[in-house]
Amino acid sequence: MRSFKRSGVLGSMLLAAILLVTACGGKGGNAGSAIPSAESSAEASSSTPAATTPAAKKNIKFYGKIVEYTSGEKMVSELQEQLKDKYNIEGIQVDWANLEKIIKTGIASNTPADIYQFWPQNMKTFADANQALDLTPYLEADNGAWKQTFNPTLLELGKFDGKYIAVPLGSNFSVIYVNNAIFEKAGIPVPTKWTWEEFIAASKTIKEKTDAYPFAIGKEKDIQPWLARNGILSLGKSEGKLEDLAAGKVPGTDPIFSKVLSNIKALYDNQYWYPGKGALTVSRDEAKSAFYQGKVAMLAEVSANAGGIITDAKDFEVSVTSWPSMGAENAVLGGADGLFIPANVADKDAAVEVLKTYLNESIQKIHADEGYAAANVNVKVSDPVIQRIMELSADVQAKEFYNFGPKIAAFFEQEFIPNHVLVGQSEASVLDKLEKVRLDTLNK
């Protein structure tokens, strides 16, 4: 029996944070080593031999305790235990609402925390200001021993101008959860990876051979656009256009956008999308409830919610599979939780030692055992769902057309799919509006 705890609240919070980082505020500090007074030193030297006087332990402020993760406090406690003879480590709870402001205030005051939680793919502001320590020399020391412990795709998210300035803790991205019983009834093996065409063929079979809807996804503006965004990423990667898409250089008239829109419209028109004609009106919670009740064979959700979904699906076994790729290669939106060290930290080597310890195999296994996809490739877990999620994280792409500008994001959240599927606007009309928004963003 699996022993995962619920993680649904954090999954939605972190995926939103991955895509739209909010500003934040506060102050960290680093007390450094305790320095005794001359008087106390004299006393100590007269009564205690210098050779037996223990060295003062360094104080470390670790701004990375994620209490929303069921693994968060356990990992910090284990970090403190492993380094208790050398460091006094203060684990500070992450204030998500004010995170960026807290970090910038600490750095500006010249008393930052030694280590901060932040999303590697969103480190550009700190990279541009040279406020993050270059971790490249530490990663590449000893023939890249530390570097080789990371999932290479996730590690690249924290690389700016050829320098690694942040390292990943774990990934979070969009996946498909599968009701194994419905797939078995339909005679369909759960795929490892699949194309959009294979996904549609499976949906057709499920509709014909079972009383369940094939697929469900929430209507929320930060969830429903996954259908389009993942399609654009997959096609963009396959055609070598990811960089141009992220820079807004690909016009809305490109066949990529037309193919994505047509595929989604067919999914809706064939009523493979729960609950048929009302598909774009169902909330995330309603989609999950339908999945738990066996009304839906496949649920679109974030990988960080695996533990909660497995636990709540009481009547059937759950598998996880990749998002179906519209192009020849798979690519999915998402990112990583991670950590960095401020450039003006008091003791760089001490901070690196603590960071390396926190991301070692034994502490990251705590994270994985609680149902989260750790970034350390040496971590092995017994649950096949979590192991599969860790493997699928190699498909994560942080740069995408959606993030080109806020107007583009708003268009995908509110208009791209709804206007064509519900309102009935022609494909040409929707794509024409997309091109106008792109040009407005370029010319602002």
Task: Please give the structural blueprint.
Layout: H1 8-19, H2 38-47, E1 58-65, H3 72-82, E2 87-93, H4 99-108, E3 115-118, H5 124-128, H6 136-144, H7 152-156, E4 159-160, E5 163-164, E6 167-179, H8 180-186, H9 196-209, E7 213-216, H10 226-238, H11 242-246, H12 255-269, H13 284-292, E8 296-302, H14 306-312, E9 318-321, E10 332-340, H15 348-358, H16 361-369, H17 384-392, E11 396-397, H18 406-414, H19 416-423, H20 427-442
Parallel strand pairs: 1-2, 1-3, 7-8, 10-11
Antiparallel strand pairs: 3-10, 4-5, 6-8, 6-9, 6-10
Helix pairs in contact: 3-16, 8-9, 10-12, 12-19, 18-19, 18-20
Distance between the termini: 55 Å
Discrete helix count: 20
Total number of beta strands: 11
* Structural class assignment: alpha/beta
Brief synopsis:
The chain has 444 residues and is α/β, with parallel strands linked by helices.
Structure overview:
The protein is an alpha/beta fold and 444 residues long. Helices cover 44% and strands 14% of the residues. It has 20 helices and 11 strands. The strands form 2 sheets. Strands 1, 2, 3, 6, 7, 8, 9, 10 and 11 form a 9-stranded mixed beta sheet that branches. The protein has a two-stranded antiparallel sheet with strand order 4-5. It is globular, with a radius of gyration of 24 Å.
